[in-house]
Amino acid sequence: SLCIRTLDEVTMFEQLMMASFMQRHWADNQVSCTVTFDPISEAPHIPAALAHFQYMLKGISFLPRTMNHQLQPSNSSSSSSPSSDNI
């Protein structure tokens, strides 16, 4: 059976290991990667993770996971023309 995990199920360290693997074995230039992390359980480990991967990655971005992953609805007016306060 095929086991597919969502990004919420992949740890910060697993994401860093995958980026490191891609940097070493696949890319000639910098791998673009934004690592998502749990702000409570994983954030305290970011300094240690950066120290560990400092020579394996050329650059990395971090984004905290939030409980609400849905986009907030836009505040649009019912008219089709833009309002003056949106210009």
List the main descriptive attributes of the protein structure presented here.
single chain; alpha+beta; 2 strands
Overview of this protein structure:
There is one protein chain. The chain is built from two helices and two strands. It is α+β, with helices and mostly antiparallel strands and 87 residues long. It has a two-stranded parallel sheet. The longest helix has 14 residues, at 12-25. Mean pLDDT is 83; it is low at 70-74 and 76-84.
Strand content: 5-15%
Number of helices: 2
| Computed CA radius of gyration, to the nearest angstrom | 19 Å
**In angstroms, what separates the terminal alpha carbons?**
53 Å
Residue windows where pLDDT falls under 50 for at least 5 positions: 70-74, 76-84
Instruction: Give the proportion of residues in helices.
Output: 25-40%
The rough form would be described as: globular
Using DSSP, what is the number of strands?
2
Mean pLDDT: 83
Oligomeric nature of the chains: single chain
Give the SSE string: HEHE
Could you describe the largest sheet, including whether it forms a barrel?
2 strands, parallel
Strand order of the largest sheet: 1-2
Task: Give the structural class.
Answer: alpha+beta
